[in-house]
Amino acid sequence: MKDPILIVGAGLVGSLWAVLLAKRGYQVEVFELRDDPRRAGFKGGRSINLAMSDRGWKAMERAGIKDTIRQQAIPMHGRKMHDTTGQLTFQPYGEADQAIYSVSRGGLNIELINIADQYGQVKFHFGYKCLGLEAESPTAHFEHRETVERLSVKASRIFGTDGAFSAVRRSLMKALPRFNYSQSFLDYGYKELHIPPTADGKHALDPNALHIWPRGQFMMIALPNVDGSFTGTLFLAYEGQTPAFEQLHTDEQIMAFFEQYFSDAIPLIPNLLEEFHENPTSSLVTIRCSPWCCEDKVLIMGDASHAIVPFYGQGMNSGFEDCTLLDELLEEHQGNWTTTIEVFNATRIKNANAIADLALRNFVEMRDKVADPKFLLRKEIAAHLNKVHPEFLPLYTQVTFSHIPYSEALAEGEAQDALFEDILALKDIEKNWKGHPEIERIFKQWMANRQARATA
Amino acid sequence: MKDPILIVGAGLVGSLWAVLLAKRGYQVEVFELRDDPRRAGFKGGRSINLAMSDRGWKAMERAGIKDTIRQQAIPMHGRKMHDTTGQLTFQPYGEADQAIYSVSRGGLNIELINIADQYGQVKFHFGYKCLGLEAESPTAHFEHRETVERLSVKASRIFGTDGAFSAVRRSLMKALPRFNYSQSFLDYGYKELHIPPTADGKHALDPNALHIWPRGQFMMIALPNVDGSFTGTLFLAYEGQTPAFEQLHTDEQIMAFFEQYFSDAIPLIPNLLEEFHENPTSSLVTIRCSPWCCEDKVLIMGDASHAIVPFYGQGMNSGFEDCTLLDELLEEHQGNWTTTIEVFNATRIKNANAIADLALRNFVEMRDKVADPKFLLRKEIAAHLNKVHPEFLPLYTQVTFSHIPYSEALAEGEAQDALFEDILALKDIEKNWKGHPEIERIFKQWMANRQARATA
């Protein structure tokens, strides 16, 4: 019998990848460090959510589970900004029918594991720590967390979907003679804060928006859950002069901070002090590496090869897109794994690096620029240009509502910065941009230059 | 009795650091993975040399061994370029009395160990592999390579000078919650080739120059040894279209390659084929990380915290400068280690990153630009400006013949690029740059702008 395909890590990417491989008829063994979430529940039972956008949905569709997931997802059509006085500003993400969707991380993972499990040829093994692997055979070694039973699994090939601190990546790093690797932490941490439903079970804020409290150097955000709650997340520097976690120890310090910056959120978080003290402060890391594979034997995917910060909502989406692209390559190359993995490794890394850059840049946008009238004006003009010239896609649309490779979106975004620099320099543009004749002229000139560059 | 200071790694930086600490009266224990080079000799007995420049000499002076080392060093006053026909061009590094010095890596290491050993309070332990450490105590664990005896050493503080693949750094990476780290390999490898003395014991090439065979995408260099030999080093891509190591397997392929690109070097390397087949192809890595310390308990220095590619000749020099700077800080802060390590960590990392960038950039300069008449013209004009305006220091001079922090040199180099872009754009500049009135005008304008920026 042929050796099975081995997947290390049954998180979102690993379990989706198991589904796609099962659909193609492969025997798949999945090993996961944590306990079975269907029995154990998710860590602390907290509602943690993620924003699914078009790249994620495409993968869901390919796995045949788009409709199931969509039923438990809440559309968010734009950002709702809260200023320090509690005043709200809304800024749509795209056109009226475009939205990103808040989905439960735990619920989605259980759903994907259940679907994979329905295929007889997928077998899950929970509670196994990966100790390392030999890439040539390839064989992976595990130890059960409780029984300390050890076992080695020989596979036809091994996929590492074991997250940002991947054991499979660590083995690749040792096995490959020249492995390029970087881990880079932000000086910021994040803390989740629970916003429960109102007394009558409703959402305490408009559920069809992603809420942002932009405060320049820091921010809070909140995404809706289907149970009527929101998950709030505070992003704040660990240390330093501006408000920072290290300055918030006593109840008085924490309350004073919230009263100054997030006063409208205080009544929404009834257990604010308890949550602030007890919930962990977690770090934000960007991981880049190259290559992602050892021949056609081992490949790392998702956070294991490209962990990014969460500010473009593309961590899960880019991991799911890895699955889509591999599945498409496998289709195109008629099951030839050697070519599939070679092409994926040669083409995908630059796109992962691009979304890593975009995600870092978007932190500044979310915590600072969304509160800037010039920035909102740019968004409005971009939406207008998109309506008049559908071939013009704003950067956010390219990343979130398209399947354009991230590296092309990044390059296009940089070109658009130049365009809007010219447009926003027009005299009194903020007063009368609608129908401003110069906008059309500048835009046409920019498009012509762009085409000239493209054909050059 | 007070716990001793522990140094992990008795290479160049570790043994120099032991000398400087001993001079201050500290008890020092030094553990080294390899055998005692005084007994074992250096790997394969090959002559490997390094270029010592002002930053290194300053550290030698501080250790009181400048004169001893200088006696065994060969001054190189400039670069001697070999074109494909064997024609030579000389380009001085600075003024007539300025030179970099070729020193034997092994000889220098032995000298430093000997000097440290003369201090009763320094103890060397060879053949011990560092298995890891606990930063808090701090305690390091070792295993003897042959006897497999294990021992743990508690220290007042631990310095990791154990090179690019540092075990101490690996422990810091695990101990610190947010350790930023990157390892980045060039797609190039290098191979050393021995150029023996002539029959009458003389150097086969001018010994007072660093020889370069620049070939655009690749190059060979050679540095003189005191025994009359040269160490040649070929830098070449591992793979690809241009000549690459993967294309050089058979004797015919190797000879054809040398005949086409390095024909004047063939008679200099009598064992060319044997050396090419048997000497390893080594990789070129840049390592950056932050922080370099765990409180005031553990600090990594030299290649352990900032390995760089060799193209600016600053790997050893920057490691030695780490020792000088720490020693100066210790002097300034009257033995206060907490402040010394804190200030070093806060100020040195940006300079290490700057020399890493400069070294990568200099590869292009050495393999390609030194063969470009425009580049040589720039060097000549820069030397002229330096003579007329001594406050103007060319970038190479700042890095090699000064103690200006590397990050300032890098910024200055970028400013100088703009200056020379303007100067070299002058009509017919290559024909009559001497006394060209425009050069003085452009230079004065540039200096005025620079001063305006500095005071702004």
What key attributes describe this structure?
alpha/beta; FAD/NAD(P)-binding domain; seven-stranded mixed beta sheet; 456 residues; homodimer; 15 helices
Coarse morphology of chain A: globular
Query: How many beta strands in the DSSP annotation of chain A?
Result: 19
Q: Outline the biggest β-sheet of chain A.
A: 7 strands, mixed
**Percentage of residues in DSSP E strands of chain A:** 15-25%
Class inferred from helices and paired strands of chain A: alpha/beta
Largest interface between protein chains, with number of residues from each side: A-B, 12 and 12 residues
The third-level CATH topology of the domain at 5-74 and 102-183 and 284-362 in chain A is FAD/NAD(P)-binding domain
CATH class of the domain at 5-74 and 102-183 and 284-362 in chain A: Alpha Beta
Quaternary arrangement of the chains shown?
A: homodimer
Helical content band of chain A: 40-55%
Gap from first CA to last CA of chain A:
54 Å
Major sheet: arrangement of strands of chain A? 6-5-14-15-16-13-17
> Taking all residues together, what is the mean pLDDT of chain A?
95
- Computed over alpha carbons, the radius of gyration of chain A is 23 Å
CATH superfamily of the domain at 5-74 and 102-183 and 284-362 in chain A: FAD/NAD(P)-binding domain
Helix tally of chain A equals: 15
Low-confidence stretches of chain A: none
The CATH architecture term of the domain at 5-74 and 102-183 and 284-362 in chain A is 3-Layer(bba) Sandwich
